[in-house]
Amino acid sequence: MVKRLTAWVLDGDPLGFGTMSSVARGRVREMMGEVMTAQGRSLPADDTADLREIGFRSLDFSELALRVEDELGDELNFDAPGLRRIATVGDVLDFIEQLQSA
Amino acid sequence: MSEVSLVPPATVVLVSGGSRGLGLAIVTDLLAAGLKVAAFARTVTPELRALGEKYPDHLHYGSVDVNDAKAGQAFVKQVEEVLGPIDALVNNAAIGQDSLHVHTSADHLAEIIQTNLTSPLILTRFVLRRMLAKGLKGRIVNITSICAQRGYPGLVAYSATKGGMDAATRSLARELGGRILANSVAPGFFASEMSAVLGQTQLDQIVRRTPTGHLTEPEDVLPVVRMLLLENTNINGQVLVVDGAASI
After folding, report:
1. How far does the signal peptide extend, from start to end residue (chain B) (predicted)?
2. Among residues B81, B36, B27, which one has the least CA distance to residue B57?
């Protein structure tokens, strides 16, 4: 039910910036860029970019998740194995989407 | 990719259990060092109130039970508004024990574990989430005890909680990747605590067996806590014992 609701919310948000009940992919990417900029690095436009190569570490993911939580008004808790599967920028965005719809 | 950036000295420090004993001494010491300090305890003592009058712009205090997570979190947000973002936490609040394990009720065991282990971990989690969300670096100092490393009768549950905090300290240091420095300070028995439960003969015997010739005082611990909060030492994930070598 929650999954369908989120999908509906995202479908109704053509600009990809989400609503009060979800933070959309475009906005999450923007926040990911902010996390990297704050550390003197930049986020490449390519979703296939390797996280190790661009220096995006697990703590950076935590910071991003906390920023998303802040906009979402809800906690996104997850186990470490889920995080270990993440290798690219696209994986990060997919994972945040999955967390929000879980 | 190599990334070397130091964790800056603490500027706003949250101290749990800061109304008396070692906690109050830590609060007093950090205020004297020019830091902004937030302190909470179940009961606000006249001594803490007096510090508030002396340092009105640098000290924020409140009556909060460390086991009341919601109240603790509300206090943290209040501190951020009054003093600015918290970049250091001193987990000092704890309750003691003076009962043999077989004669300690299950409820009292649970209370000791809740107060000395679960609640500090929950507070740490909340403060870390605020720090990371703001992109801050910071420092955590857990006040533990020599009981975590040596056995003492009458302190089974207490020792277990302090050992738990030391273990958590090491994992936090790993998990936080150098962005937050996490360390424990483990004092030996304070003279005041010992004199409350031991006779003069026993006290004299312990002092004789302590290479430095004196029991630990809060004043011995303060420079160590201050160092961990302010200095660049690359000490991380460690337990620093302050006991005059009584335990070695």
Report:
1. none
2. B36
Name the A residues in 81-100 with CB < 8 Å from any B CB: none
- The CATH number for B234's domain is 3.40.50.720
d(CA B107, CA B113): 10
Q: What pLDDT shows up at residue A7?
A: 34
CB contact under 8 A, A67 and B133: yes
- Helix-, strand-, coil-residue percentages of chain A, each rounded to 5: 60, 5, 35
**A70/B3 CB distance under 8 A:** no
The chain B residue lying nearest A53, using CA atoms, is B1
Asked if residue B42 belongs to a domain, the reply is: yes
B41 domain-assigned: yes
CA atoms within 13 A on the CB side of B61: 29
Q: Which value, to the nearest 10 degrees, does the dihedral of the CA atoms of residues B219, B19, B237, B145 take?
A: 70
Chain A residues in contact with B129 by the CB 8 A cut-off are: 66
Whether B61 sits among the annotated catalytic residues: the reply is no
Going by C-beta distance under 8 Å and a sequence separation of 6 or more, which residues neighbour residue B62?
B40, B44, B75, B78
Nearest CA in chain A to B132: A63
In-domain check, residue B50:
yes
Structure tokens that stand for B28 in this block: 């007093």
Structural domains of chain B, count:
1
Kindly give the residue spans of alpha helices, DSSP state H, lying in B147-190: 156-175
Structural domains of chain A, ranges and CATH numbers in brackets: 2-101 (1.10.1200.10)
Q: Is B177 left (phi over 0), alpha (psi -120 to 50) or beta?
A: left
Within 8 A by CB and 6+ apart from A42, the residues are A33, A36
For residue B59, being part of any structural domain is answered with yes
Choose among B1, B129, B177: nearest Cβ to A59.
Answer: B177
Q: Is the pTM value of this prediction over 0.90?
A: no
- Give the model confidence (pLDDT) of B171-224 as tens digits: 999 999 899 999 999 999 887 776 666 677 877 888 888 999 999 999 999 999
